[in-house]
């Protein structure tokens, strides 16, 4: 059974976020070295109708009526703007529920006029800016061959011209790749072009696609935030170097699928999964069932369960 809607889950940026997963596992136009979903299996850059929008709307109708959330967030097991039915879902959400709407996207499809028009109906569009140059862009995001760094930034810039909501951007810092002052100055110059409302400086906190990926140390992080504040007002810069705390919502009648719906989007620590089971007074044997669909990965000394479809 497919679960398109999951949570709400605690989000480091959006509070209690009710997620809508619109893309199957690892269809993306990037193949980021730090991706918590693993390496991209299908690097594509064309829009596809992965699922019938009506099926997703059916789940949304129930979830938006029965669950308590702060944001309705479009997301994917890959890049959500590659879903050809996204515009229809956004329209539905605009007309049928009253919570703010967000999307977590890498931003590369904003070069497409249709995608800009769909996303202009949202309240928050979170894009990624991990690089300030073509060279680092290719190293860290490993984009589809059609995507160049200039076109990528041009898309976000064009979107800024028509969008009255908030653009948030995330800079994921990886030790030895983009955690140096020169790259941060280039990233700062890039941000001057599209003026983000918020910048989140992040570090990998969950198991990454490439096992050699490491977060920078906290003093490097603080120094780079200082460098960036020459380009973006410091009250718009936030450092996030911790794992979310807070409650994950699951459907008590279908706990395994519900938990797997969350795990498809983000690895959870074993403690987090056990905490959900305990809080819902469910049997611990559920953990064994979850283990059949996940593998255990240790990152930064912490054990995670990572969804694995094979
Ligand atoms: S982090 Fe996001 S943009 Fe990068 S490969 Fe993973 S899903 Fe795609």
UniProtKB/TrEMBL annotation:
Pfam families according to UniProt:
Radical_SAM
Check the record and name the SMART domains matching this protein: Elp3
Q: Does the keyword Metal-binding apply?
A: yes
Q: Which domain of life is it from?
A: Archaea
Q: Which cofactor does it need?
A: [4Fe-4S] cluster
User: What GO terms are given for molecular function?
Assistant: 4 iron, 4 sulfur cluster binding; catalytic activity; metal ion binding
Lyase in keyword set: no
**Which keywords accompany this UniProt record?**
4Fe-4S, Iron, Iron-sulfur, Metal-binding, S-adenosyl-L-methionine
The segment(s) forming the Radical SAM core domain are 12-244
Task: Spell out the protein name for this chain.
Answer: Radical SAM domain protein
Q: Which PANTHER family match?
A: FEMO COFACTOR BIOSYNTHESIS PROTEIN NIFB-RELATED, UPF0026 PROTEIN SLR1464
InterPro entries, from UniProt? Aldolase_TIM (IPR013785), Elp3/MiaA/NifB-like_rSAM (IPR006638), GTPase_Obg (IPR040084), rSAM (IPR007197), rSAM_sf (IPR058240)
């Amino acid at each position: 059974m497919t679960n398109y809607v999951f949570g709400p889950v605690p989000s480091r940026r959006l509070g209690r976020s009710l997620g809508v997963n619109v893309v199957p596992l690892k269809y993306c136009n990037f193949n980021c070295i730090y991706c918590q979903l693993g390496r991209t299996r299908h690097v594509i850059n064309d829009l596809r109708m992965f699922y019938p929008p009506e099926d997703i709307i059916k789940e949304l109708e129930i979830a938006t009526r029965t669950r308590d959330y702060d944001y309705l967030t479009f997301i994917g097991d890959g890049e959500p703007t590659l879903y050809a039915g996204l515009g229809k879902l956004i329209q539905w959400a605009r007309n049928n529920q009253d919570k703010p709407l967000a999307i977590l996207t890498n931003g590369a499809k904003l070069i497409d006029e249709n995608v800009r028009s769909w996303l202009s109906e949202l309240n928050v569009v979170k894009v990624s800016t991990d690089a300030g140059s073509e060279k680092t862009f290719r190293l860290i995001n490993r984009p589809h061959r059609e995507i160049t760094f200039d076109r990528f930034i041009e898309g976000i810039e064009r979107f800024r011209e028509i969008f009255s909501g908030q653009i948030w951007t995330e800079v994921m810092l990886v030790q030895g790749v983009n955690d140096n002052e020169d790259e941060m100055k280039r990233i700062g110059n890039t941000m001057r072009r599209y003026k983000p409302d918020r910048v989140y400086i992040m570090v990998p906190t969950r198991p990454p696609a490439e096992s050699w990926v490491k977060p920078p140390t906290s003093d490097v992080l603080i120094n780079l935030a200082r460098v960036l504040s020459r380009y973006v007002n410091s009250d718009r810069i936030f450092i996030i170097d911790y794992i979310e705390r807070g409650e994950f919502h699951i459907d008590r009648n279908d706990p395994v699928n519900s938990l797997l719906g969350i795990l498809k989007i983000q690895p959870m620590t074993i403690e987090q999964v056990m905490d959900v089971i305990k809080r819902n007074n469910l049997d611990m044997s559920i953990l064994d069932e979850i283990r059949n669909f996940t593998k255990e990965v240790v990152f930064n000394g912490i054990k995670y369960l990572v969804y694995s479809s094979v």
